[in-house]
Specification:
- The protein is mainly alpha-helical and about 350 residues long.
- It has two domains: about 5-225, no CATH class; about 230-345, CBS-domain, CATH 3.10.580.10.
- About 60% of the residues lie in helices and about 10% in strands.
- Strands 1-2-3 form a three-stranded mixed β-sheet, with helices on both faces. It has a two-stranded antiparallel ribbon with strand order 4-5.
- A hairpin with a 2-residue loop joins strand 4 (about 260-265) and strand 5.
- Helix 2 packs across helix 4 (about 85-115), helix 2 (about 30-55) packs across helix 5 (about 130-145) and helix 10 packs across helix 11 (about 275-285).
- It starts with a strand and ends with a helix.
Length: about 350
């Protein structure tokens, strides 16, 4: 459906934990099977949420999968805003638990229907040595988990949006994230006290999920409010279409710049990067920049948001540079090379400004 799927590193850590648990029971492959069941349970849940989002007309850029569920990265601020209010937030919040619990009930009914002696309720409920029973309870636990009032779980997300003043979005998000992390730590310590292995693992991943969501909220608040004029490169070199590639290579040698706008007078006519210059010199010999430059480029305005530019770079294949123009004059540029540095520095600048304002 055009949505990028990402698996968080901690999902791979869980694979090691499951395999070690399987080996302790005498079957390492069974541990891998348990991990695949957890991955499939999360996939079922997120597929349901993705279909609901598509039905609501929401645009999603990517999904990051964690063992407790997935986190959406919205393709535009409008989709994010719609997802956090009205019927959309309820539909998305209910889709995951309903999908997980329905899957658990369907599997339980199927297994007990095929065999009346199927050990559905037998402890431990989740174990590598009973994968069919584990399949039922993993989905059931995942569905029930998201009915806890802990952010970023589904019910916690509803409460967050319900009590989140529109003017204090980031602050409220951090408060609810802290509550979710507190509940996660309580689950971890309770599990250790009761010598239970499930509660500490669940608490750990709720804690990680809250941190991931916190970072995502802050990142989104930066990219959707920072303007190009705040982060664009203003000290840069341009090339002319009539420059030779040898001259352009000389400029590359004496510059840290990777990508160059090509201008005729004040008009932007193309872009070229260091790799393209080098490859053309090797393959075709010296020539003019005009013959090697790319005419596939987009132009930003100083008041465009950083988020809009990130989406342009993501959508445009091979797009490594976006010039910033004021009228017909190039006043700056943004490259993939400096983009993450700009986001990080802009975020730090916002933090410093908030601290100074609070004082």
């Amino acid at each position: 459906m055009g949505v990028e799927i990402r698996i968080h590193t901690f999902f791979l850590v869980l694979a090691i934990v499951c395999m070690l648990q399987g080996q302790s029971a005498g079957n390492g492959l069974a541990g891998l099977g348990l991990w695949l069941l957890i991955l499939s349970a999360v996939a079922v849940r997120e597929a349901a949420r993705l279909m609901v989002a598509a039905w609501l007309g929401l645009r999603i850029r990517s999904i990051l999968l964690l063992p407790i569920g997935g986190f959406f990265a919205w393709a535009n601020p409008e989709s994010q805003e719609q997802a956090n209010h009205g019927r959309a937030q309820w539909a998305l919040a209910l889709a995951g638990p309903l999908a997980s619990l329905s899957t658990a009930l369907l599997m339980a009914a199927t297994f007990t229907g095929v065999s009346a002696s199927f050990p559905l309720i037998s402890f431990p409920l989740v174990t590598p040595m009973a994968l069919m029973r584990s399949m039922v309870w993993i989905n059931a636990f995942l569905g029930l988990l998201h009915l806890l009032p802990a952010y970023p779980l589904d019910l916690g997300r509803i409460l967050h949006n319900r009590f989140n003043p529109a003017s204090q979005t980031t602050l409220a998000s951090r408060v609810f994230n802290a509550l979710g992390q507190g509940l996660a730590l309580a689950a971890i310590f309770t599990g250790f006290a009761l010598h239970d292995t499930i509660l500490p693992i669940v608490g750990f991943f709720i804690f990680i999920g809250a941190q991931v969501e916190d970072q995502g909220v802050f990142y989104q608040s930066v990219v959707d409010t920072v303007r190009m004029k705040e982060v664009m490169l203003t000290d840069f070199t341009t090339l002319s279409p009539s420059d030779t590639l040898a001259d352009a290579m000389t400029r590359c040698v004496h510059s840290l710049q990777e990508d160059f706008p090509v201008v005729r007078g004040t008009q932007l006519v193309g872009i070229i990067n260091r790799q393209r210059i080098l490859e053309t010199l090797r393959e075709e010999g010296n020539g003019y920049v005009q013959a090697a430059m790319s005419r596939n480029f987009q132009v930003a305005r100083p008041d465009d948001t950083l988020g809009a530019i990130i989406r342009r770079i993501t959508a445009g294949r091979g797009l490594t540079l976006i010039p910033v123009a004021e009228g017909d004059r190039i006043v700056g540029m943004v490259t993939v090379q400096n983009l993450m540095t700009s986001v990080s520095l802009a975020g730090e600048q916002r933090k410093i400004e908030r601290i100074e304002a609070a004082e």
